[in-house]
Structure formats: structure tokens, C-alpha cells
Amino acid sequence: MKGLGMPQWGKRVLLFAVPALVGAVVLAALRTHRSKPELTEGGATVPAARVITVRAMAVQPQAFGYGTAVPARIWDMVAETSGKAVVVHPRLKRGAIVPAGAVLVEIDPTGYKLRVAQLTAQTKSLEAQLEELALREKLDRAIWTTEQQSLELKERDVARQQVLLAQKVVPQSEFEKVKRDGLAQKLKTQTAAKAVQLVPFQRRMLQAGLAQAQAQLAEARNQLADTRITAPFECRIADVRIEQSQFVSKGQILAVADGIAVTEVAAQFAADDLRLVIGPGGTASLRERALREGLGQALGVSAMVRFRSGDFTAEWRAEFARISDVVDPQTRTMGVIVEVPQSYAQSLPGVRPPLVKGMYCEVELRGTPQPEQIAIPRHALRPDSSVLALDGEHRLRIRQVRVGWCQGNVAVIAEGLATGDILVVSDVVPAIEGMRLDPVSDDELAARLLAEAGGKGAKDD
């Protein structure tokens, strides 16, 4: 029975023959069922290419810059009087928000109240002296009138006595006595006249003294009012340098507060991007409109501020406020200041925080939409300013174009393409003029292009 077994060399043949036979069967089956490639006239494979149809659309110019949020108003709480701080608001703490008109610090007013009382009494005294002077003036004028009448009588008596003396009716001594009485009356009349003439000078002196006292009283009242330091607007406390019962010197900074009504972001933009967004405008009419409507309205520029942190994004509508007066010497960029009103009022817990000082934000500017522009995906633009297009026979044509401007994923073509052209948007390697391609319409890319050109898509990160 041992001699009937298979020899060793036969087993080795079977070991290699069986797998080879199985592989041949599988290969034959694959060749039978595989799909046949599309062939050209010469029998070569036609590669597929994604394409879109070029169309004219409205393109909204956009520019993106970055800057840090700062409050539009910063208030240094400066003491305008000296004394001990007798009242400090319990919310005068860093980070707290206080309403407008809240009394934050009160300095001991005792000395200032005494000063006001003294000057008030002095003012009333001078007012009483002026009233007394007015009454005395009336009396002096009445006395002056009486003395003038008496003088007239004395002068007539002297004249009569002089006639009698000439007729030797009266002695010389009596005439001289009447004459002396007349001179005395004349002196009294002159004294009464001087009293009346001095009244205007006395009134001016009293009025000057009264004005000085009133000015001092007003200053004292202001100083008394300055002992109560109130918040000029709703604000958030940024720094505190005062404690209860601490002595305060005039001119000392007690706290620093940031206004929360308006927050500014000063962002830097490339000059070319800013030029596209702002566009041309008449200088005279622009100045008038800017004064009347604001710079953003006059230029037709809207703004949006965004804060990003990981996957979290918050955004606020902003107003194009003004352009910085200098160009950054290192980056050669221009600064634009935008304003975000009432970011605290717009805040939603867990959704949108207030725009807090120090946030590093993205600022998006949007200009007036430019109609009938030829816009293509930016990646379809080759380094040599050419694009790949298909003719009516689906053959590749390399076209030189002139680019108007680029923004994000969009390139605006000024020359070289027209509405209805078929643009190749996928890589073709090698790109040979006249080669035939199998076009596949990329409707999703066309929709994204239309949305981003209209300002609804995301910018290129």
C-alpha cells in the first residue's frame, strides 16, 4: 500500500498549480466584467473636468481687518476738592456697572458749607447796603433841593441888604452878617450837592463788592457740589484707588471707568482692500453728507464686528465712524474705527457676550454692490493670470484674463471672459491646448460663488 501513494514531486506540482489556476480564472472574470473607458476618435481616454458657466452677477466689495475693542468714552474720576472721603459707593469696585448719576464718592462737605454760609451773609449785607444807598440818595436829593431854595432866599436877602446899605438905611455890620449867612448857605448847598454826586461812586463800589461776593459764593457752591462725585454716564469700573475715610487731595485720580454705551474697534486694513470698499466719491458732497448722515452712510459702507474663540463666534452690527489719520509704518495698513452701540444691551448669556475692552475682533466692511461683474472662483485663476475654458466642442482653451480685484474666494475678471463661457474649475494635468474634456457641471460651487460674491459666504481663511 505504501507503493501506491503520490510521489513527493507530484505533491509539489499540485501545491503551485492549484493557486495559479484560481488566479487565472479570477483575472479572466475581471476582464470580462470591467467597464470600457470612453474613447476619443484616436482611441484615447477623455478625462472628466468640473466646470461652471460664467455669468454676470452683483459683487459686494468686502474687506477684513483686525483690531482690539476699546470703550468710546473713558472717565477718570478726579477729585476737584480736598478732604476726607465720608461716603464710597458700595458698587465702586472693579468690573461693576454703575448707572448714570450715581453718587460714587462724597468728600466731607462741612468746611465748604461754612464757606457758603459766610459768603451768603456777606452778599446779603452788600445788597442791604445798596438798598440803604438808594434811600439815602433820595433823602440827599431832597436836602439838596431844600438847600438850593434856601440859597436863593439868602441871595435875594443879600441883594436887598446891599441896596439898603447903599441908601445908608442899614449899618455895614448888619449887611456883613447877612452876607456871611448867604455864604454859609452856599456852602451847605454845595455840600448837599456833593453828597448827591458821590452816590453813583458809592453804588459802583458796593456793586463791585457784591459781584465779587457773588462770584466767591458761586465758587464756594461749586466746591460744595464737587464734594459729591457722580457718574456722568452709565459705566463699568475699570480701576479703584479710593477707600472709605481716606483723605483726598485735589487733582487726585480716585477711579477709572469705561462707558458702555458705545464700543470702538480700531482695525487695520490693506489700502487696496479699503479702496475697493469705499470707492470713489465727490469731496464736497461727501463732506456735507458725512456731517448730516455720518461717514458710513455717506460712503455706503456697512460694518460687522466678530469675536471668535475656538468654535464660538459672536457678532455685532457696527457703524463706520472714521478713518485713522496715519498709516502703520510697519504693516503699511490703514486704520478704520468702527463703533458698536449698546453691546451690553444686546448681550445674551451663553449666546453673545458684551463687547468687552481688550477683545481682539475681526471687522468686516461691505461697500456698495457692483452690478454686472464677471466673478469666478479664485482657485480657477492660474499663476500666469490665465484660466482654462472649454469651447463648443469641449476642447480645452487657455485664456489670458485681466483681474479687476480679488476678495476671499472670488476673483472679479475685467477682461478675458464673458457671460456664457464654460470655465474649468478643477485641476487638469497636463493642461494641453485643444485637448478634449468630459465636462461635469459643479452646481454646488456655482451656488457658493454666487452667495459669496453677494456677501453671504465665508471669507477665505
Summarize the model shown.
The chain is an alpha+beta fold and 461 residues long.
What characteristics describe this protein?
4 domains; Elongation Factor Tu (Ef-tu), domain 3; five-stranded mixed β-sheet; alpha+beta; conserved putative lor/sdh protein from methanococcus maripaludis s2 fold; 461 residues; OB fold (Dihydrolipoamide Acetyltransferase, E2P)
Q: How would a textbook summarize the main sheet?
A: 6 strands, antiparallel, barrel
Mean pLDDT: 84
| Strands, total number | 23
Based on CA inertia axes, which overall geometry fits?
elongated
Order of helices and strands: HEEEEEEEHHEEEEEHHHEEEEEEEEEEEH
Secondary-structure-based class equals alpha+beta
Rounded to an integer, what's the Rg over CA atoms?
50 Å
Provide the domain count. Answer: 4
**Number of DSSP helices?**
7
Name the beta content range: 25-35%
Q: What gap, in angstroms, lies between the N and C termini?
A: 83 Å
Pick out the low-confidence regions. 1-5, 35-43
The helical percent reads 25-40%
| Strand neighbour order, sheet with most strands | 3-12-15-14-13-16
Note down, in words, how this protein is organized.
This protein is an alpha+beta fold and 461 residues long. The chain folds into four domains: 97 residues, Beta Barrel (conserved putative lor/sdh protein from methanococcus maripaludis s2 fold); 114 residues, Efflux pump adaptor protein, beta barrel domain (Elongation Factor Tu (Ef-tu), domain 3), CATH 2.40.30; 61 residues, RNA polymerase II/Efflux pump adaptor protein, barrel-sandwich hybrid domain (OB fold (Dihydrolipoamide Acetyltransferase, E2P), Beta Barrel), CATH 2.40.50; 116 residues. Helices cover 38% and strands 31% of the residues. A six-stranded antiparallel barrel has the order 3-12-15-14-13-16. The N terminus is likely disordered.
